[in-house]
Amino acid sequence: MLHGIDVSDWLGAVDWAAHRQAGVSFAFVRATEGDDGHDRQFARNWEQTRSHGLLRGACHRARPGRDPLAEAGHFLAAVRARGFLTGDLLALQLQDAGGRDPEAVAAYARAWCSHVTGDAGVRPLVLTHVAFARAGHCAGLGGYPLWLAAHGDAPGRPAVPQPWDDWAVHQHAASPVDHNVFKGPAVRLRSLGLGGPAEEEIMKRLCVLGMSIGERQTVAGGSAEAIEYNVEFIDLDNLHADGGSSISPKVTRDYHLWARATIEGLKEGDRVTLHFSRYHRETGEAGTEVHREDRIGDGGTISVALYCFDHLDDRHRVRFRVSNANDYPVTVTESQFRLAT
To answer: From which residue to which does the signal peptide run (predicted)?
Structure first.
């Protein structure tokens, strides 16, 4: 196991040379908090960890109740401003509900993680603790690597809460600095960061169905359209339902859902909404929504992605939809939709 620490400006100026000499191999440093907070030591810590040969990760402290997409954008802008390089990791510190109920906190975290994954191409680790996860605040996050704060457990032997089956990083002590271990060698930790297997490549390796659009599709103003597909590469279990837009899981289990598209004609400042939605397999009746996120136009053609990890059953179909509440049409092109185990 690798040994590491995590720090914030509460510790002041960290002596990175001393930690490196003591056997520390990696470090997570706080970058941001909420949608406007900056860690005063982030710039120094980010530069010093790299200059001392440590694998490094940037961490965002969540403030559920605020806009998760604004927080994700604030975080990524801060990291990129200081250099987001190959092997760098990203993490969400999710340990404070901010007075919100577990369902709202989990929805916030799913939106934050999905946005970061789609924008940065890196699945963030989620730092939380057992009681918080068991209370339901982390529902739907099992597809992201777990960074578990469990100070009463022996290093590398934490009790893993649902929705995870395993841990990646274990924070096992908090005095005078947070101490962690990583489950695996340095090359494995580095693979979780920038330049590791791209989300698209992960989907290809695990894919049980992949669909790509056959032609350009217009979404009229004030409407929502399920994107129509032709099967392009893999569908061994005949999961691509009749009608051209649905995936029909044959086994009830957890799945990765991943979609990508190009949106043309969206005006600057206007938005469209991306959805994964359930429909009853036999009747077609709309069921619960799996996941949704807004994307804002910049006046040109934009590339969008939507990713989530969710429990799907064999009684429903799943579709990727684009909603356009504006008073003019937009065009969806180059769309892909994948279901992976």
So the answer is: none
